[in-house]
Protein backbone atom coordinates (compact mmCIF):
# COMPACT_ATOMS: atom_id res chain seq x y z
CA UNK A 1 0.00 0.00 0.00
CA UNK A 2 1.43 3.35 -1.02
CA UNK A 3 0.91 6.87 0.26
CA UNK A 4 -1.54 7.42 -2.59
CA UNK A 5 -3.78 4.64 -1.27
CA UNK A 6 -3.75 6.11 2.23
CA UNK A 7 -4.47 9.59 0.92
CA UNK A 8 -7.32 8.30 -1.26
CA UNK A 9 -8.91 6.56 1.72
CA UNK A 10 -8.70 9.68 3.87
CA UNK A 11 -9.95 11.88 1.03
CA UNK A 12 -12.92 9.57 0.59
CA UNK A 13 -13.97 10.08 4.21
CA UNK A 14 -13.38 13.84 4.00
CA UNK A 15 -15.43 14.14 0.79
CA UNK A 16 -18.17 12.04 2.38
CA UNK A 17 -18.24 14.40 5.36
CA UNK A 18 -18.32 17.50 3.14
CA UNK A 19 -21.17 16.11 1.04
CA UNK A 20 -23.08 15.11 4.17
CA UNK A 21 -22.62 18.60 5.63
CA UNK A 22 -23.68 20.28 2.37
CA UNK A 23 -26.83 18.18 2.05
CA UNK A 24 -27.73 18.83 5.65
CA UNK A 25 -27.27 22.58 5.27
CA UNK A 26 -28.96 23.01 1.89
CA UNK A 27 -31.81 20.53 2.16
CA UNK A 28 -32.26 20.40 5.92
CA UNK A 29 -31.66 16.66 5.89
CA UNK A 30 -30.85 15.41 9.37
CA UNK A 31 -29.14 12.25 10.53
CA UNK A 32 -32.42 11.09 12.04
CA UNK A 33 -34.28 11.49 8.75
CA UNK A 34 -31.65 9.52 6.83
CA UNK A 35 -31.62 6.80 9.46
CA UNK A 36 -35.41 6.67 9.44
CA UNK A 37 -35.42 6.27 5.65
CA UNK A 38 -32.99 3.35 5.77
CA UNK A 39 -34.78 1.75 8.71
CA UNK A 40 -38.09 2.08 6.85
CA UNK A 41 -37.04 -0.95 4.79
CA UNK A 42 -37.40 -3.00 7.96
CA UNK A 43 -35.85 -6.45 7.83
CA UNK A 44 -35.08 -5.95 4.15
CA UNK A 45 -32.65 -3.14 4.93
CA UNK A 46 -29.82 -5.35 6.22
CA UNK A 47 -30.56 -7.89 3.49
CA UNK A 48 -30.24 -5.13 0.90
CA UNK A 49 -26.89 -4.05 2.33
CA UNK A 50 -25.54 -7.57 2.36
CA UNK A 51 -26.92 -8.33 -1.09
CA UNK A 52 -25.25 -5.28 -2.62
CA UNK A 53 -22.03 -6.24 -0.90
CA UNK A 54 -22.23 -9.78 -2.26
CA UNK A 55 -22.43 -8.63 -5.88
CA UNK A 56 -19.73 -5.99 -5.39
CA UNK A 57 -17.01 -7.97 -7.22
CA UNK A 58 -19.31 -8.33 -10.23
CA UNK A 59 -20.68 -4.80 -10.59
CA UNK A 60 -17.73 -2.97 -8.97
CA UNK A 61 -20.02 -1.20 -6.50
CA UNK A 62 -18.30 1.20 -4.03
CA UNK A 63 -18.77 -0.91 -0.91
CA UNK A 64 -17.06 1.70 1.28
CA UNK A 65 -20.26 3.72 1.05
CA UNK A 66 -22.25 0.70 2.18
CA UNK A 67 -19.94 0.23 5.16
CA UNK A 68 -20.49 3.80 6.33
CA UNK A 69 -24.23 3.63 5.65
CA UNK A 70 -24.69 0.38 7.59
CA UNK A 71 -23.08 1.80 10.73
CA UNK A 72 -24.84 5.13 10.19
CA UNK A 73 -28.25 3.48 10.21
CA UNK A 74 -27.84 0.53 12.56
CA UNK A 75 -25.12 1.60 14.98
CA UNK A 76 -21.61 0.40 15.67
CA UNK A 77 -22.00 -3.29 16.48
CA UNK A 78 -25.07 -4.23 14.38
CA UNK A 79 -23.63 -2.24 11.49
CA UNK A 80 -20.29 -3.95 11.89
CA UNK A 81 -22.01 -7.34 11.86
CA UNK A 82 -23.81 -6.54 8.60
CA UNK A 83 -20.59 -5.27 7.06
CA UNK A 84 -18.69 -8.42 8.02
CA UNK A 85 -21.42 -10.68 6.63
CA UNK A 86 -21.72 -8.63 3.44
CA UNK A 87 -17.98 -8.33 2.87
CA UNK A 88 -17.52 -12.05 3.51
CA UNK A 89 -20.24 -12.75 0.95
CA UNK A 90 -18.40 -10.47 -1.49
CA UNK A 91 -15.21 -12.38 -0.80
CA UNK A 92 -16.95 -15.68 -1.49
CA UNK A 93 -18.32 -14.25 -4.75
CA UNK A 94 -14.80 -13.37 -5.88
CA UNK A 95 -13.50 -16.71 -4.65
CA UNK A 96 -16.11 -18.64 -6.63
CA UNK A 97 -15.37 -16.55 -9.72
CA UNK A 98 -11.71 -17.47 -9.37
CA UNK A 99 -12.54 -21.14 -9.00
CA UNK A 100 -14.99 -21.05 -11.91
CA UNK A 101 -12.91 -19.13 -14.45
CA UNK A 102 -9.58 -20.56 -13.36
CA UNK A 103 -6.09 -19.24 -13.97
CA UNK A 104 -6.36 -20.06 -17.67
CA UNK A 105 -8.71 -17.08 -18.02
CA UNK A 106 -7.60 -14.70 -15.27
CA UNK A 107 -3.88 -15.45 -15.83
CA UNK A 108 -2.73 -14.05 -12.50
CA UNK A 109 0.54 -15.94 -12.79
CA UNK A 110 1.50 -13.81 -15.79
CA UNK A 111 1.31 -10.58 -13.80
CA UNK A 112 4.61 -9.51 -12.23
CA UNK A 113 3.00 -8.09 -9.10
CA UNK A 114 1.03 -11.26 -8.36
CA UNK A 115 3.34 -14.01 -9.58
CA UNK A 116 4.96 -14.71 -6.22
CA UNK A 117 1.68 -14.39 -4.33
CA UNK A 118 0.05 -16.76 -6.79
CA UNK A 119 2.48 -19.60 -6.18
CA UNK A 120 2.96 -19.06 -2.45
CA UNK A 121 -0.78 -18.97 -1.77
CA UNK A 122 -0.95 -22.53 -3.01
CA UNK A 123 1.37 -23.47 -0.15
CA UNK A 124 0.14 -21.24 2.69
CA UNK A 125 -3.29 -20.01 1.65
CA UNK A 126 -4.85 -19.35 5.07
CA UNK A 127 -1.89 -17.33 6.33
CA UNK A 128 -1.68 -15.24 3.19
CA UNK A 129 -5.40 -14.46 3.11
CA UNK A 130 -5.45 -13.51 6.80
CA UNK A 131 -2.39 -11.26 6.69
CA UNK A 132 -3.36 -9.61 3.40
CA UNK A 133 -6.85 -8.90 4.74
CA UNK A 134 -5.32 -7.42 7.87
CA UNK A 135 -2.70 -5.41 5.95
CA UNK A 136 -4.43 -4.97 2.57
CA UNK A 137 -1.51 -4.40 0.22
CA UNK A 138 -3.52 -6.41 -2.33
CA UNK A 139 -7.04 -5.38 -3.37
CA UNK A 140 -9.91 -7.14 -1.58
CA UNK A 141 -11.46 -8.61 -4.73
CA UNK A 142 -8.10 -9.48 -6.30
CA UNK A 143 -7.15 -11.48 -3.21
CA UNK A 144 -10.48 -13.30 -3.33
CA UNK A 145 -9.92 -14.20 -6.99
CA UNK A 146 -6.41 -15.41 -6.21
CA UNK A 147 -7.66 -17.56 -3.35
CA UNK A 148 -10.17 -19.18 -5.67
CA UNK A 149 -7.69 -19.71 -8.48
CA UNK A 150 -5.09 -21.25 -6.15
CA UNK A 151 -7.67 -23.54 -4.54
CA UNK A 152 -7.39 -22.24 -0.98
CA UNK A 153 -9.89 -24.21 1.11
CA UNK A 154 -13.17 -22.31 1.29
CA UNK A 155 -13.47 -22.74 5.05
CA UNK A 156 -9.95 -21.41 5.59
CA UNK A 157 -10.65 -18.54 3.21
CA UNK A 158 -13.81 -17.50 5.06
CA UNK A 159 -12.24 -17.66 8.53
CA UNK A 160 -9.14 -15.75 7.40
CA UNK A 161 -11.29 -13.13 5.66
CA UNK A 162 -13.56 -12.53 8.66
CA UNK A 163 -10.81 -12.15 11.25
CA UNK A 164 -8.44 -10.33 8.95
CA UNK A 165 -10.83 -7.53 8.07
CA UNK A 166 -12.17 -6.87 11.60
CA UNK A 167 -9.89 -3.86 12.38
CA UNK A 168 -10.74 -2.08 9.14
CA UNK A 169 -14.42 -2.91 9.52
CA UNK A 170 -14.40 -1.48 13.04
CA UNK A 171 -12.84 1.74 11.73
CA UNK A 172 -15.53 2.19 9.05
CA UNK A 173 -18.28 1.35 11.54
CA UNK A 174 -16.94 3.85 14.05
CA UNK A 175 -16.87 6.60 11.42
CA UNK A 176 -20.41 5.82 10.30
CA UNK A 177 -21.70 5.75 13.87
CA UNK A 178 -19.99 9.04 14.71
CA UNK A 179 -21.56 10.73 11.69
CA UNK A 180 -24.98 9.56 12.79
CA UNK A 181 -24.45 10.94 16.29
CA UNK A 182 -23.39 14.38 15.05
CA UNK A 183 -21.02 14.60 18.03
CA UNK A 184 -17.93 16.49 16.83
CA UNK A 185 -15.72 14.95 19.48
CA UNK A 186 -16.81 11.44 18.53
CA UNK A 187 -16.32 12.24 14.83
CA UNK A 188 -12.79 13.45 15.57
CA UNK A 189 -12.02 10.28 17.55
CA UNK A 190 -13.46 8.09 14.79
CA UNK A 191 -11.45 9.80 12.07
CA UNK A 192 -8.32 9.54 14.21
CA UNK A 193 -8.83 5.79 14.67
CA UNK A 194 -9.53 5.45 10.94
CA UNK A 195 -6.35 7.34 10.05
CA UNK A 196 -4.24 5.36 12.54
CA UNK A 197 -5.37 2.01 11.16
CA UNK A 198 -4.56 3.04 7.60
CA UNK A 199 -1.27 4.58 8.72
CA UNK A 200 -0.29 1.30 10.42
CA UNK A 201 -1.17 -0.52 7.22
CA UNK A 202 1.19 1.76 5.33
CA UNK A 203 3.98 1.47 7.91
CA UNK A 204 3.91 -2.33 8.03
CA UNK A 205 3.48 -2.98 4.32
CA UNK A 206 7.19 -3.57 3.66
CA UNK A 207 7.54 -5.87 6.66
CA UNK A 208 4.54 -7.84 5.47
CA UNK A 209 6.01 -8.16 1.98
CA UNK A 210 9.30 -9.32 3.45
CA UNK A 211 7.69 -11.77 5.88
CA UNK A 212 5.44 -13.27 3.23
CA UNK A 213 8.33 -13.18 0.75
CA UNK A 214 6.43 -11.35 -1.96
TrEMBL record:
One cellular component term from this protein's GO annotations in UniProt: plasma membrane
Superkingdom of this protein's organism: Bacteria
Protein family per UniProt: Belongs to the TVP38/TMEM64 family.
Chain segments annotated as transmembrane: 6-23, 44-74, 80-102, 126-148, 154-174, 186-204
Membrane topology reported for the UniProt record: Multi-pass membrane protein
Record Pfam families: VTT_dom (PF09335)
Domain VTT stretches: 61-177
Protein keywords: Cell membrane, Membrane, Transmembrane, Transmembrane helix
PANTHER family, A to Z: GOLGI APPARATUS MEMBRANE PROTEIN TVP38-RELATED
Entry protein name: TVP38/TMEM64 family membrane protein
Lineage: Bacteria, Bacillati, Bacillota, Bacilli, Bacillales
Subcellular location: Cell membrane
InterPro entries: TMEM64, VTT_dom
Amino acid sequence: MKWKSLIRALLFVIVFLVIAWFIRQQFNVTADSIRSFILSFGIYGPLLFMGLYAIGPIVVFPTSILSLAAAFAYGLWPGMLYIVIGATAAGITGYVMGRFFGDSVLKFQESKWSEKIYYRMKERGFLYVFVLRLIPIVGFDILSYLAGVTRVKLRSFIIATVFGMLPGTFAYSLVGTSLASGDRQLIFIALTVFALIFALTFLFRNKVRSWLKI
